[in-house]
Amino acid sequence: MLKIADRTFRSRLLLGTGKYPSFDIQKKAVEVSEAEILTFAVRRMNIFSEEQPNFLEQLDLSKYTLLPNTAGAKTAEEAVRIAKLAKASGLCDMIKVEIIGDDRTLLPDPVETLKASEMLLEKGFIVLPYTSDDVVLARRLEELGVHAVMPGASPIGSGKGIINPLNLKFIIEQSSIPVIIDAGIGSPKDVAFAMELGADGVLLNTAVSGAKDPVKMAQAMKLAIEAGRLGFEAGRIEEKEYAVASSPTTGMVTS
Amino acid sequence: MSIILNGNNVDHQEGVNTVEQLLSHYHLENRIVVVEVNKEIVMKENYKTMSLSHGDVVEIIHFVGGG
């Protein structure tokens, strides 16, 4: 079970809702993934043009926990404004703090992220900051009282997977709050790897929505989460330099 | 009366004087939206009483797909 603040979730997969080829495929992918936490962005409504269907309005909201993000914010103040707008919907009190500090790499601004997290905690939000994989920053965020830390595996949407497993492992080892690996996931092996490192969950979007078959990939990610987690709990063998035979070395049938 | 609605200058005829009337003018009364007037969030229970004035900056916000 994944426990964030006072909520528990059966699924350790958090799924983004952006960039699916169609609503139909998206609905099926979400269902198959068995994710219980879905991320959304907060935007101006396009009220002057033809009505487009809205994915969130088609969801059975009793089955999902919404995790709106503050994407688009470049400062702590902007992030707080977006978070307050999201909460005013009456549908959620969790917020993914996402403050981009660099347009080319979409890496988060650590200073503004720390500031926004503090402001949002004061306002009673359940705060899940998307951060870089900095070990000390993760500790500082935990000391503030955030409810989970979400270090990136690699740049958003890059699909490069986990490029610094050592830092992620350090963060996981030191944290007593959930560590959710967020961003940069490319394939199921990245998810299994994150879970084997001991992550409490993985948040991904493009890896599923951009796959050739998003529904099938959603299922693959679900299985990878489960396989990785079971592997972590089971405790893997030590690596050795040389071969160690699995078959008995006595009673050989030889001439 | 003209207001700035989601970044656009719009003129409304008589009958669009409150947030509630604005939402129904755009057929949004049953949609999941959040309304901000001059950077202050208007809670649902105040839609009926919150009146709009000339020059108000109004944002109608909703949730879209995102990661």
From TrEMBL, chain A:
Annotated EC: 2.8.1.10
GO cellular component, one term: cytoplasm
Organism of this sequence: Peribacillus loiseleuriae
GO molecular function, one term: thiazole synthase activity
Catalysis performed (reactions): [ThiS sulfur-carrier protein]-C-terminal-Gly-aminoethanethioate + 2-iminoacetate + 1-deoxy-D-xylulose 5-phosphate = [ThiS sulfur-carrier protein]-C-terminal Gly-Gly + 2-[(2R,5Z)-2-carboxy-4-methylthiazol-5(2H)-ylidene]ethyl phosphate + 2 H2O + H(+)
Ranges where the Thiazole synthase ThiG domain occurs: 3-248
Keyword Zinc: no
Record protein name field: Thiazole synthase
Residues that hold 1-deoxy-D-xylulose 5-phosphate according to the record: 157, 183-184, 205-206
Coiled-coil annotated spans: none
SUPFAM superfamilies membership: ThiG-like
Known partners and oligomeric status: Homotetramer. Forms heterodimers with either ThiH or ThiS.
InterPro entries, per database record: Aldolase_TIM (IPR013785), Thiazole_synthase_ThiG (IPR033983), ThiG (IPR008867)
From TrEMBL, chain B:
InterPro entries: Beta-grasp_dom_sf, Mopterin_synth/thiamin_S_b, Thi_S, ThiS/MoaD-like
Membrane-spanning residues: none
Signal peptide (residue range): none
Coiled-coil residue spans: none
The protein, known as: Thiamine biosynthesis protein ThiS
Organism expressing this protein natively: Peribacillus loiseleuriae
Taxonomic path: Bacteria, Bacillati, Bacillota, Bacilli, Bacillales
